[in-house]
Amino acid sequence: MANKSKFQAIRGTRDLLPPETALWNRVEQTAHEVFSTFGFGEIRPPIIEDAGLFARAIGDETDVVAKEMFNVQSSEPDIVIKTEDGIIAIEIKESLRTDSRQLESQLEHYRSLLERWRSDPSSIAKKETWMLRPEATASVCRAYIEHNMQQLPQPVKLYYMGPMFRRERPQKGRYRQFYQIGAEILGGPDAPAIDAELIEMLMSFFDKCGLQGTELSINSIGHAADNCRRGYVAKLREELIKVKDKLGADSQRRIETNPLRVLDSKLEHEQAIIATLPRIADHLCDECKAHYAAVKHELEQRGVIYRENWRLVRGLDYYMRTTFEITAQGLGSQNAVCGGGRYDGLVELLGGPPTKGIGFAIGEDRLILSLQESGKAPAAQGRDVYIAWMGEKAYATAIRAAKTLRKAGFRVELPPTELKFGKALERASKLGSRFALILGDNEVQSGEWTLKTLADGSQQKLTEQALLDYLKSL
Ligand code: ATP
Ligand code: MG
After folding, report:
1. Cα 60 to Cα 52: distance, rounded to the nearest angstrom
2. Is the pLDDT of residue 187 over 60?
3. Across the chain, what does the average pLDDT equal?
């Protein structure tokens, strides 16, 4: 029996439709153009990666890895062997419970695996888990290592664009499948000019897209050393413990797990408390302090306007020095369109050579939303020419005319069945056509075609060549 219930896109995912997709294409085209003028090349990593890559690169403890990733089963296990305190439990998949013969043979197989595992646990390969990527920096770093890019002239400048997946609570500007445009600079020196030029590129891109009300915030989070960030975090923790009772549950927990993240808090009643906490700028080591000052100077030389935000932090050890974020208008509380920062230890953490790194990720959905809010959305794309034809001979001419016009780059609609001229003209204006090319017996015989301008109803007679010349001259 046919099931007639309708399907819908999964919650948190959505269809991008015309004419909106034209805006997406324009934004992506702008990224290709701007990034290539800064010497970046495009990388297209896969959308699924080994779970371990994200666990290591983003961190087991983060919300993204702990709660938000979409697992892709490489093959569903029939029977799962769990061990806990030496007790082994076997879970049998629903479908096997009704097929005793198959179950018997499966059990046999697992019994032998179990024996092997008991005598030598390392002899049984761990089951692969694949994940839909929640971001792409980890993939780019993996690719840098996998393809020995450290042998290329350094630094290597790469950009990417595409869908990312996070199991978050969907709301305006927050989806489970969303799109990022990002760039990474890997290798080379840690000259402050690299940080500044990356940010300059980003701001030129936003500018070229026509994004309104952009604000760039920057900060330096030093590096993971006792005389720098680690010392600061210890100090911060001390101060937080003193005000613990006044903080919410999340922040209380973070005092132990990740005090820096408390600075991220958006809770109203915590703001006044946070304002009194020690600031990282006063605890940077001399090198990080000098690096930060130089980045700011380099930004000024490039005419990039920024403001400093001491609360802009990243929770992971390998993030260091420069961090930045860009907000735009029209987005409500989800107003961050881009986040970025330096991550010098990441490539090494993933098994590569010590490598400097800095990058950013733009939330394309939010960028598009903001452009739409400020009236930058394109209108539905009309047709340049609608060909109204009647009769067998006229049809042959119409096919030829459509081919010639399309070759010249015009948007042409050729109705697949014959329509009375009145009906055809109605369709033409519904499709937002600029002109109707009228082809009937008279036109075919005389070789003089009728071109009607739909806006004012005026008509002119033109030969094929004259028509082409006329349209091109507009
Ligand atoms: P947020 O604080 O908004 O959750 P984030 O810190 O998780 O952002 P990043 O991981 O730094 O974001 O990703 C960079 C950009 O990607 C963000 O600034 C945002 O524009 C966009 N982004 C992140 N998560 C989503 C999502 N679920 N839906 C749409 N865009 C997103
Ligand atoms: Mg997030």
Report:
1. 9
2. yes
3. 91
